[in-house]
Design a protein that fits this description.
70% of the residues lie in helices and 0% in strands. By secondary structure, it is mostly helical. The protein has one domain. The protein is globular, with a radius of gyration of 17 Å. The termini are far apart.
Length: 200
């Protein structure tokens, strides 16, 4: 790849990633299965955790898979142009999920897509995330707290493993996860956050 076309490839990676990320699987699937408008259910979030509050585990699982894959697929597509293009595509997908143009830039909180990006870019991070998330969820029963702890640890793990590019990408995504979880952090501090399995 020549130096002259690299900026074009990176821009294209960002655009394709973003468009993939804007696919609102939660909204599409809940409507398809006759569960109503997800934005009027539970927290109003379009992610799998809120889909689970409909009581339909099958749709929640499909949403989780869709939100995960829309992070993985763009990364894998752009690996042919190198790690930098793959990272940009993953970043684009994550931003697309958080701020989809089709929904007035009001998207999900990004945890599933975060995992999907890691899966495509540096899969070891998924194992770290899963270990921390499962441990924290078992102890405290809060999905949001488990996700926050996991996204805090993942960049550190990459850094310790010597993968600085993955560490940098994960750190940026983790920061955005924290920003999107500010309401959850406030509820955790106030003791009003819903626990795993709650429909509230």
């Amino acid at each position: 790849m020549s130096v002259e076309i690299e900026p074009t490839i990176l821009l294209f990676a960002l655009l394709v990633g973003y468009l993939c990320g804007t696919i609102a699987f939660g909204l599409i699937l809940t409507r398809l299965f006759g569960l109503g408008d997800l934005r009027s259910i539970g927290s109003g979030n379009i992610g799998a955790t809120n889909v689970l509050r409909t009581g339909n585990k099958k749709v929640a699982a499909l949403t989780l898979l869709g939100d995960l894959l829309k992070g993985t697929v763009p990364v894998l597509i752009f690996w042919r142009w190198g790690a930098e293009a793959a990272a940009v595509a993953g970043f684009g997908a994550f931003i697309g999920h958080l701020f989809p143009v089709w929904l007035g830039f009001k998207g999900g909180k990004g945890v599933a897509t975060y995992i999907g990006v890691l899966l495509g870019f540096a899969p070891i991070g998924v194992l770290v995330f899963a270990a921390v998330w499962l441990g924290a969820a078992k102890i405290w029963k809060f999905s949001s707290l488990a996700a926050l702890l996991a996204t805090l640890i993942v960049p550190i793990a990459y850094l310790l493993l010597g993968n600085t590019m993955a560490a940098g990408l994960a750190a940026i995504l983790s920061l955005l996860v924290y920003i999107k979880h500010v309401p959850n952090i406030r509820r955790l501090a106030a003791g009003t956050e819903s626990k795993i399995g709650s429909k509230g």
